[in-house]
Hydroxysteroid 11-beta-dehydrogenase 1-like protein (Phaethon lepturus), 291 residues
Amino acid sequence: MKPVGKVLCATGIVAGFLAFFWKDPFNPESLSGARVLLTGASAGIGEQMAYHYARFGAEIVLTARREAVLQKVRTSLYEGRHRRFGLLPKQQQQISCQHDKFSFGTVEQNQLRGLDYLVLNHIGVTRFQMWAGDVEYTRWLMQVNFFSYVALATAALPTLEKNKGSLVVVSSLIGKIPTPFTTSYSATKFALDGFFSSLRHELIMQKRNVSITLCILGLIDTDAALENIRGKVHLTASPAPEAALAIISGGAMRMQEVFYPWWLQYTCCLWVLFPYNRDQVLQSYYNYSSP
Ligand SMILES: NC(=O)c1ccc[n+]([C@@H]2O[C@H](COP(=O)([O-])OP(=O)(O)OC[C@H]3O[C@@H](n4cnc5c(N)ncnc54)[C@H](OP(=O)(O)O)[C@@H]3O)[C@@H](O)[C@H]2O)c1
């Protein structure tokens, strides 16, 4: 056999062994009875997270603005005969709120008696277009996508600390690598990385036992995302249920960062390692002809 063949064979055997003995370190049972507050749960990835958490036996409180849609998610959870849904009396098992006008105190005092996971996932309506100078929109999006996360996390920290809990922050590859058509959205996601990665240092330095998991997602096949990028980007979207599971398992394992799909981690490394010509490569994925 040629040396190349030997190397390939050896690599295959090692890969086979690794696959056979590798065990997923995520234990879904660790979520049984966990108290979870999940924002943006009426649609997309948040909705899928609600189904997973319920399947794992967590006690969840969901938030979104559209009460009727949230109610449908709740009905599906009951129809799925999930063991536990909500740690609250039936009529309070969901809340509806707008996070640009919302204070965590409302939920904490009136709805929850404890918290193990705060999962921050909601986003305001995203415009996928060239910057047109709308500063007010950017200010508003910062409020929904960033400041409300800071406010909710700050209010939840004492409770999370008491329960050695976890903060899970859903971000995007666009919060690591800036892309066209996403000026305001990208700014809000970079802000999340800056704030929560700095806060993580501080919690560790103060020996406060609250984990922070920042989730970096690529394009996911939610209705909102697919509608936004239609005809503008040459990229394939990954499935929302898998993205939701990656977020939940990363949070449960107290990981600092979760990348979904997994290879995004290497994309970020390459982005930093090869600063030349990378913009041209990235722009080639976008459908745009200059005027
Ligand atoms: N989909 C992707 O391709 C993708 C890629 C990378 C990262 N992500 C991240 O993944 C997370 C979820 O994205 P998604 O695609 O699932 O979003 P989505 O389908 O648009 O869902 C957004 C959720 O947030 C809620 N929401 C919207 N505005 C709100 C407000 N002002 N206050 C409170 N809740 C509000 C929505 O419910 P109501 O309308 O009922 O309020 C909905 O439940 C986001 O953090 C996003 O940045 C997504």
Notes: The chain has a mean pLDDT of 88. The two ends are 58 Å apart (CA to CA).
